[in-house]
Write a structure and sequence with these properties.
The protein is an alpha/beta fold and about 300 residues long. It has twelve helices and ten strands.
């Protein structure tokens, strides 16, 4: 796909305005950008796990979704969409459908990294022709900002409150993108919002039009849980990429391809200081937390570079 920003933004919206998502939230931006990569004339069946996205965009009888939409429980979006995709193939084989449909699931990190991981893994292993998009906001935001396995090390959440007893979340963030690569599926990518959206747009198009299962992991900040002013969304995602906290890469048929390498890698504190959930790390005596996160980011970055043959 040759990316044209003008052509891309002129495509009809598949995700309507007027939904109830927060200002400065990353998930509706992810949804709009992904759905805009559908080619004109192609239809989609969208499935969303219970989440902020679902409760804010589909309040019966109102919906922001212009394609067919299925709301599922937290744990089974991938399983339901697997069944729909299988039914579609059967109907096509019988000659009862001529239109082209694509199948796209959206889930937050709670419904993807944790509660929905079993159904996601099963759908990928079985080889269903669908795309699973995780909009990763790094906690269970819809139910009160509880930690998930995607929550970063030392982050302050309602179930890992930073204080005198614990310094926030005690565990490192799960690397789900790498776990999905281990399933041996045709396409896996990690992306976010940076520049003119070229990276996320191109990867979403490849994911949708790659035959077989595909997984797209999108960093989608949450102003409530991350505690930043809504207008700082793009600054945060840029800092995540430039510090290598959230590197941009894709894995095509098992081959790692680095999408972007910062010319001057930012220290991790430039990313952390933008968010209230990490404010305790900058208090006197807590410098060791920043140092430890820097070591973790550096190690993960070097491992990724090695995987990409650099």
């Amino acid at each position: 796909m040759s990316y044209s920003l003008k052509e891309n933004v002129m495509r009809p919206e598949r995700f309507a305005a007027g939904h109830r998502m927060c200002a400065g939230c990353g998930s509706p931006i992810a949804v709009r950008t992904v759905l805009r990569q559908l080619e004109p004339g192609d239809h989609a069946v969208v499935c969303s796990a219970t989440s902020c996205l679902e409760v804010s965009t589909f309040m019966y009888p109102y919906t922001a979704w212009k394609d067919s939409f299925i709301h599922n429980a937290f744990e089974n979006a991938a399983a339901t969409l697997s069944g729909v995709e299988t039914a579609y193939k059967a109907l096509k084989k019988q000659g009862r459908l001529d239109d082209t449909y694509k199948f796209i699931a959206f889930g937050g990190d709670g419904g993807t990294y944790d509660i929905g991981f079993q159904s996601l893994s099963g759908a990928m292993e079985r080889g269903h022709d669908l795309v699973y998009v995780c909009y990763d906001n790094e906690a269970y935001m819809n139910t009160g900002i509880q930690r998930s396995s995607s929550t970063p090390h030392f982050a302050d959440t309602t179930t890992t409150p930073a204080g005198s007893v614990i310094p926030g979340k005690l565990q490192q963030k799960k690397n789900l993108t790498r776990i999905m690569v281990a399933h041996g599926i045709p396409y896996v990518a990690q992306t976010t919002f940076i520049g003119n959206f070229k990276d996320i747009a191109e990867k979403a198009h490849r994911a949708i039009y790659t035959p077989g299962p595909a997984f797209l992991n999108v960093m989608a900040p949450c102003p409530r849980g991350w505690r930043y002013p809504s207008e700082k969304l793009m600054q945060i995602t840029k800092a995540a990429v430039e510090s290598c906290v959230w590197p941009l890469y894709e894995v095509v048929e098992g081959k790692y391809i680095l999408s972007y390498e910062p010319k001057n890698k930012l220290p991790v504190e430039e990313y952390l200081k933008l968010q209230g959930r990490f404010a305790h790390m900058f208090k006197p005596g807590n410098e060791w937390m920043i140092d430890q996160v820097q070591q973790e980011v550096d190690r993960n970055w070097q491992e990724l570079l090695a995987s990409c043959g650099k």
